[in-house]
Design brief:
This protein has 19 helices and 23 strands. With 508 residues, it is an alpha/beta fold. Among the domains are: 111 residues, Nucleotidyltransferase, domain 5 (2-Layer Sandwich); 117 residues, Nucleotidyltransferase, domain 5, CATH 3.30.420.40. The strands form 8 sheets. The protein has a 6-stranded mixed beta sheet with strand order 18-19-17-16-22-23, with helices on both faces. A hairpin with a 5-residue loop joins β2 and β3. The longest helix has 26 residues.
Length: 508
């Protein structure tokens, strides 16, 4: 308690589908939460944009809403999480030049080829930035702007990421931190510096990029105008925060090497912390900085996880309200045998990141017959997302990081059926934690560490989180999925051949 109210920490998450705000007490208890939805613009197939100003308006709405729900709260500090990679282009006055190109935007294949060629090959990218040139990363988006919208590029003064833009609107400070910077393809996670080698190779000025400070350092304080708009106190400290995946891992206590977490959001990830910046020789998985100091992580990404299931629900169960649809689809999928009686779903609705690195990949339902029902398709969709995440688990095993247990979070942790599917398909025990707030919770813990409420993230997690006992998969069920997993992997290669033929005909 303070003299005037209850001391809390504000966690913000600037997501793709909405801006979430939560208030967290020092005990870890969430006292209030609010969510303001966001819309996604897809002007052309493979494109994905949002106006950063809508993030700011949604942030204002969520903060005001959450403060109204707990009028006695006194916000001691603020932490911000946000979608990775998405590009905010600002002019010299700090105004947004054009809508942001998002992490799931796949228009930059030509720019990725340019980056690889300018760098002299992927071996240099591996040395300079520890990652390949992928359409979702930020640097290709900057080059796209230069090539396709040169007038806008001439106005460009600063490139920010989603959560850094919101902190700029709150504080006026222009900065970033290592976990988000390492997803731009312009930052070397190993040396914790912007890569002057790569920036020089593609002729992009370092002056476009913000300074980098530690994730839990205070980067600024709420200024008077933002205080008026949000209802926050002027001068409230705002820490660096972090990328959504890193904050999500922090928010469930996956901080130390040896841990691993599988997450279902709009996208899906498998993340494993490391004590060194370990790089996959094939560059199938990403090497990024964690929000904890002197910690990195390997991560595989499925671009459409919860997003794929949401698309399926909207197309095939639109007659039911969302909650009823989720319950009905879950029940009917549970009645179908493993492998969905031969039906295979490829969840590549926006291309794919791990392991294929293929922005042109597309989704498919294969193996359908007159004997199959919606229940078979539902089971296949859920299994398809799990199979895609399992590709990342397999990469960890190849690199000697075999997880003994996986923590589940996001949508994949809420359903008993999906938890069971992940355990059986991954072939490892799974567990969950007693918090469901996702990256916003990790951001709130970071805010607490940043002002000294906890010594570090490990202490914060130990004092605020509790895990469920691990659920061990049935060995027969694990064995039963070997053939469906192989069928899924073969289906990608068959569908890729068809997609390539279609694209070639379109070019003629």
């Amino acid at each position: 308690m303070t003299a005037s109210g209850v001391s809390v920490f504000l966690g913000l998450d600037i997501g793709t589908s909405g801006v979430k705000a939560i208030l967290v007490e020092g005990s870890g208890r969430v006292t209030a939460s609010a969510l303001t939805p966001l819309a996604l613009s897809t002007p052309f197939p493979g494109w994905a944009e949002q106006d950063p100003e809508t993030w700011w308006q949604a942030t204002i709405a969520s903060i005001r809403d959450v403060l109204a729900k707990h009028p006695d709260a006194v916000v001691s500090s603020i932490g911000i999480s946000g979608q990775m990679h998405s590009s905010v282009f600002l002019d010299r006055t700090g105004e947004v030049i054009r809508p942001a190109l998002l992490w799931c935007d796949g228009r930059t294949t030509q720019e990725c080829q340019e980056i690889t060629q300018s760098a002299g090959g992927e071996s240099h990218l591996r040395d300079w930035v520890r990652n390949p040139a992928l359409e979702g990363f930020t640097l290709p988006k900057v080059l796209w702007l230069r090539r396709h919208e040169p007038e806008a590029f001439t106005r460009l003064a600063t490139v920010l990421l989603a959560k850094d833009f919101i902190r700029y609107r709150l504080t006026g400070a222009v900065s970033t931190e290592p976990s988000d910077a390492s997803g731009t393809l312009m930052f070397d996670p190993a040396t914790l510096r912007w890569s002057t080698d790569l920036l020089s190779a593609v002729n992009i000025s370092r002056t476009l990029l913000p300074d980098v400070a530690p994730s839990m350092a205070v980067h600024g304080a709420v200024h008077a105008h933002a205080a008026t708009l949000t209802g926050l106190r002027e001068g409230t400290p705002v820490v660096g925060g972090g990328a959504d995946n890193a904050c999500g891992a922090a928010g469930v206590g996956v901080i130390a090497p040896g841990e691993a977490v599988a997450s279902w959001g709009t996208s899906g990830t498998v993340l494993a912390p490391t004590s060194q910046p370990l790089v996959d020789p094939g560059l199938r998985a990403h090497t990024f900085c964690h929000v904890a100091p002197d910690t990195w992580y390997l991560m595989g990404v499925v671009l459409s996880a919860g997003g794929a299931f949401s698309w399926y629900r909207e197309q095939c169960a639109r007659e039911l309200p969302e909650v009823e649809a989720l319950r009905a689809l879950d029940a009917e999928a549970a009645a179908i045998h493993p492998g969905a009686d031969g039906v295979v779903f490829l969840p590549y609705l926006q291309g794919e990141r791990t392991p294929h690195r293929d922005a042109s990949a597309r989704g498919a339902l294969l193996g359908l017959s007159l004997a199959h029902t919606r229940a078979h398709m539902t089971r296949a969709v859920l299994e398809g997302v799990c199979f895609a995440l399992n590709d990342s688990v397999s990469i960890l095993r190849e690199l000697g990081m075999s997880p003994r247990e996986l923590l589940l979070t996001g949508g994949g942790a809420k359903s008993a059926l999906i938890r069971q599917l992940q355990s059986e398909i991954f072939g490892v025990p799974v567990s969950t934690v007693d918090r469901e707030e996702g990256p916003a919770y990790g951001a709130a813990l970071m805010a607490a560490v940043g002002v000294g409420a906890f010594a570090d993230l490990s202490e914060a997690a130990a004092q605020t989180l509790q895990r469920t006992p691990p659920s061990v998969p049935d060995s027969a069920a694990v064995a039963a999925y070997r053939e469906p997993i192989a069928r899924f992997r073969s289906a990608y290669h068959a569908a890729h051949v068809v997609q390539s033929q279609v694209q070639q005909r379109e070019l003629l």
